[in-house]
């Protein structure tokens, strides 16, 4: 799903059944993420409005973390303790575009795995950015929604241009 599709701009529904259908969705999401060379993917990016994301992403020490979080809640350091990473961000739903977006350099997501067991993932560096980005997706927001209006317009215009050309 690309920017503009309503499923990306609508908050996802919580998962209520941890069944084979959910596990099949998670398998599909890992396959889609790897096919697109992504480090994370939210269910609504493949058109399913459920609170599920998958990730396979390095942290600040270049240690790879892989998993799924169902019904995640995001935990960030308190405002006084928060340090911002000024790095660039991109999204498989706005392909080819990147923009600097300050994000907390630490984040955690708490939720459940596909079997319904509690899971928590704590991340630094790119993984911290990924966790924030994926939970934003599930809340119906794209990273470009957090950019200054002018920058957001530029990113969208460049995307439209490459889409037409492509
Ligand atoms: Zn994304």
Automatic annotation (TrEMBL):
Any one GO molecular function term: peptide deformylase activity
Keyword Protein biosynthesis (UniProt): yes
Role description: Removes the formyl group from the N-terminal Met of newly synthesized proteins. Requires at least a dipeptide for an efficient rate of reaction. N-terminal L-methionine is a prerequisite for activity but the enzyme has broad specificity at other positions.
Enzyme class: hydrolase
Entry's EC annotation: 3.5.1.88
Binding site for Fe cation: 91, 133, 137
Active site: residue positions: 134
Organism name: Nonomuraea corallina
Name listed for the protein in its UniProt record: Peptide deformylase
Similarity section: Belongs to the polypeptide deformylase family.
Cofactor binding summary note: Binds 1 Fe(2+) ion.
Catalytic activity: N-terminal N-formyl-L-methionyl-[peptide] + H2O = N-terminal L-methionyl-[peptide] + formate
Keywords assigned by UniProt, alphabetized: Hydrolase, Iron, Metal-binding, Protein biosynthesis
Pfam families: Pep_deformylase
Cofactor: Fe(2+)
Superkingdom, taxonomy of origin: Bacteria
